Amino acid sequence: MSKARNLWRVKLNTASIVLIPAAVAINYIGKLFAEALKLPLWLDSIGTIFAGIVGGPVLGALSGLINNIIYGLTLSPASAVYGIASIGIGVASGVLAHYGMVSKLWKVIVFGIIVALVSSIISVPLNYVYYGGQTGNIWGDAAFAFLNAHHVNVILSSFVDNILVDAPDKVVSAIVAFAVYRVLPKRLTILFDNSQETTTLD
């Protein structure tokens, strides 16, 4: 079986089933932490990125989607719509990890930037539809207001708004997820090894 096909395989075992709620819990805690300290970050994708690194793009996508559905039911109804962006984050994380982008710190930083770009490209149209282009983050929205006042295109202004927060957020989130991944015992991470014949979600 090719390396590309192995990428989309999923081991349907206890570890995989436990990974998703664990990732959602990490996201939830990160978001509450960022809001409590009023950080210029969201920190609500650490678990999704971690799930993508450990379990691959399918488990990463499922973690992100379920995460946003729970957000939508408990914190903000609009969060459910952004599940599309979280799916993108999970898929991108799994693909990048599969191709060796979590082996060194500099690669993890590039990993975070790429994930931020994916997230922003998906989120900007949603921001435009639901919030007139703004993100709801005071730091990013300040840039949006400045650009808007200088007659910069609203989509470009929205992208700048989003990426200004998304880039540092996803880099920090990727580094945290990577640090957790590195300290996990090999006997645990091998449970997610999709290079062997197993149940698939094709």
Automatic annotation (TrEMBL):
The chain crosses the membrane at residues 12-29, 49-73, 80-102, 108-130. Keywords: Membrane, Transmembrane, Transmembrane helix. This is Membrane protein. It comes from Sporolactobacillus laevolacticus DSM 442.
